[in-house]
Specification:
CATH architecture of the largest domain: Up-down Bundle
CATH topology of the largest domain: Growth Hormone, Chain: A
Largest sheet: 3 strands, antiparallel
Oligomer: single chain
Transmembrane segments: 12-31, 37-54, 75-93, 99-120, 132-153, 159-181, 209-227, 247-266, 273-291, 297-313, 334-358, 364-382
Shape: globular
Number of domains: 3
Protein name: MFS transporter
Radius of gyration: 22 Å
Number of helices: 17
Keywords: Cell membrane, Membrane, Transmembrane, Transmembrane helix, Transport
Subcellular location: Cell membrane
CATH class of the largest domain: Mainly Alpha
Distance between the termini: 28 Å
Number of strands: 3
Membrane topology: Multi-pass membrane protein
Length: 449
């Protein structure tokens, strides 16, 4: 990576961290700190925890498309302004309804698609994967940091203090985007970075992608279900909120070690097997919460089991979506995946709140166990095919020449799928890299120009 790409990766990853910290810091404390709010109920708590997911899911794809029309930075800055405004509304809330409005407004700052597109615009094709990986790691890092910092900050400044810190973080990210993130000189080919509305129906009709989209929806239902219950359980075990980080820190560190071990074990397995094993870990965790008398030691064990499974699924599902998506359609596939992800967070909060209010906490765990069983059946039908690598080649052909070029590229050894889009001056390839000869492909493209 050159200096511009390193600067872009660091600054965009920082923007992500600042924003995601704000979304996640409240998750481990909301269920406890809202008990004194007017209008408090289990249902309202669930909506407050997951409310951001509704607007994130609805606006994820439109905001990405808008960034292609008015520019990446205006959309990112506008999203950060909305996020900061929502944080201030939530921070000043005096009742649960106002708090939920603030959380929903936070979610309206759906900038993930625009950030990824800008990252693609300022990086060379050969370095784009590294750029995306750095940003992806920053998302995971921000979640862990938020879960630890949330209880610490809330003990000093209360729930409103967390939201005001969140607004300040969003405000800090705005000049970072405007002054530090490099300006894009060239727009990257859109097929693998931005969603297209015309592709959404086809993505929904793709059975493999639908299994993966439903998987991430259920996964984020699970994490939201967990945080409607876990903070109260830790407090009931005699740990004040200010000390909750002492449980989360070792559990999260050990879960990363467990993730590494699981990834090593899974080498050589059919693709669906480690996914199903991870889902089984979530099932075991929720069964433990439901049926085992939970002293603190058992609470830590089952929470560790949950996070090992969660970490594996969270890190591997996006890679599978990227592999399964048709050539030139990864942007649409990933945009739809993100929408399912955030909608899952909303559903988890809303359903957990209703069940806790009217049926009790046991019904939440029974739902989680039932969802895991259904999820295992869903994954059992997942195709165990190998992962394929993607290449994007620059082309300069007319619409009439595009079909001939696509046919030539498709006949190369190892090529699984080809899409040539003359308007983007791009040829998208999905290949088996053990058989594919990149130089041959480049030679064919060169002969056509």
């Amino acid at each position: 990576m050159n200096k511009v790409e390193i600067k872009a990766a660091a600054s965009l990853a920082s923007v992500y961290v600042l924003r995601m910290l704000g979304l996640f810091m409240v998750m481990p404390v909301l269920a406890i700190l809202t008990q004194d709010y007017a209008g408090y109920s289990a249902m309202m708590v669930g909506l407050a925890i997951g409310g951001y997911g509704l607007t994130q899911a609805l606006l994820q794809i439109p905001m990405g498309i808008l960034s292609d029309r008015i520019g990446r930075k205006p959309v990112i800055i506008g999203g950060l302004v909305l996020f900061a405004a929502g944080s201030i509304v939530a921070g000043m809330a005096e009742n649960m309804s106002q708090l939920i409005v603030g959380r929903v407004l936070q979610g309206a700052g759906a900038i993930a698609g625009a950030v990824m597109a800008l990252a693609a615009d300022v990086s060379r094709e050969s370095e784009r994967t590294k750029m995306m990986a750095i940003i992806g790691v920053s998302i995971g890092f921000s979640f862990y940091l938020a879960v630890i910092l949330g209880p610490v900050i809330s003990s000093a400044f209360g729930l409103s203090g967390i939201f005001m810190v969140t607004a300040a973080l969003a405000a800090l990210a705005i000049p970072l985007v405007y002054f530090v993130v490099p300006q894009a000189v060239n727009a990257a080919p859109q097929g693998d970075t931005l969603p297209a509305l015309k592709d959404i129906r086809a993505m929904l009709a793709n059975g493999e992608l639908l299994r993966l989209n439903l998987s991430v929806l259920i996964l984020h239902m699970m994490i939201t279900l967990l945080f409607t219950y876990l903070p109260e359980k830790i407090s009931a075990a005699g740990w004040p909120l200010a000390r909750h980080w002492e449980l989360y820190l070792p559990v999260l560190i050990l879960s990363v070690a467990g993730l590494v071990l699981l990834m090593r074990m899974a080498k050589g397995w059919a693709i669906r097997l480690p996914l199903m094993f991870s889902v089984a870990m979530l099932l075991v965790a929720f069964a433990g919460y439901l049926w085992v008398p939970l002293h603190m030691s058992w609470l830590m064990v089952f929470t560790l089991v949950f996070f090992i499974g969660f970490n594996f699924l969270e890190s591997n599902l996006p890679a599978l979506v990227s592999s399964v998506a048709p050539a030139g359609k990864k942007g649409s596939a990933m945009g739809l995946y993100a929408s399912f992800q955030f909608f899952g967070a909303f559903l988890g909060g809303a359903i957990a709140g209703v069940l806790r209010q009217y049926e009790g906490v046991e019904s939440v765990f029974m739902l989680a166990i039932l969802l895991c069983v259904c999820w295992l059946l869903l994954l059992a039908g997942l195709n165990g095919s190998q992962r394929l690598k993607r290449y994007t080649l620059t082309v300069n052909v007319t619409a009439s020449e595009a079909s001939h070029l696509a046919h030539q590229l498709a006949n190369l050894a190892g090529v699984n799928d080809v899409t040539v889009i003359p308007q983007e001056r791009a040829a998208y390839l999905k290949v088996d890299d053990t058989r594919f000869n990149l130089q041959q492909a480049r030679q064919i493209v060169g002969e056509q120009q």
